[in-house]
Specification:
11 strands, five-stranded parallel sheet, 2 domains, single chain, Rossmann fold, about 325 residues, Helicase, Ruva Protein, domain 3, 14 helices
Length: about 325
Amino acid sequence: MSEYAVDMTALSEKIQQSSSFIDDIRTELDKVVIGQKYMIDRLMIGLLTNGHVLLEGVPGLAKTLTISSLATVIDTAFQRIQFTPDLLPADLIGTLIYNQKEGDFFVKKGPIFANIILADEINRSPAKVQSALLEAMQEKQVTIGEESFKLEEPFLVLATQNPVEQEGTYPLPEAQVDRFMLKLKVDYPSPAEELEIMRRMAKTGAKPTLNKVVDPATILEARKVVNDIYMDEKVEKYIVDLVFATRRPAEYGIAELEDLISFGASPRATINLNLAARAQAFMEHRAYVTPEDVRTVALDVFRHRLIPTFEAEAEEIGAEELVQKVMNNVQVP
């Protein structure tokens, strides 16, 4: 038996053991969240790769319930921040308060000092508040006065946008949206799931109690294991080809997209697609990444990074359709 085969066997055993809690989380969340497997899996990818997630969907699709339940199950501090037009950066990160008795200032920390942050309807707040949140996401620290405070790991921001009402909102600039690892489109449940939701939730009284099945230390350890998952050079090149096909479509036999894509995916897309594909393999208890793992998460990584031209918008061709054309035309290894 080759040394490589032995290494892969050892790695497979390590992944099997380290990823067992994934099934426990899914089982526990099934008590309160019906369906939405796609959303739950992508939130766990964000958790495993230290990447923030932007969710878009109409109200009532259990976004808040899923995120708060996930925080409970992994035993972390959760804060829901409702973004409103009158919100100030200090309401988010905290501020200095004068203590009249002592004659000095003390720091009052804001709700950002938690592990799982739900930034509800992020596009309702002005740019200053959005910038304060995005800085905390990027730097993993907050500065109040002259003092900097590190945010406790794991630190994950899950921001929601309501696509229905756009009047009086402040859309996130494309350059800032790029800081989110994934952008999810959360859809309505199936008729069978809707029936189960009605039967289970249309009751007054106590809701199911969630148990803590994993602690933050296990999540942080799992992140290290995700980095060990094997990715073949052919799969790495496939990721790079997908990214470059969004920038130079003609070189990949899709010249018709040249006039439809204003800006292709940034290098963050390459990094995040690699990480997300590894996390996808980890959640399936596999020690190696397949091209199918890449394809499974590619749309969520690219959706907010491809900027269509005015011509594309005039023809009602959105970023998702452009990503699908790229994936259909780039050769799979």
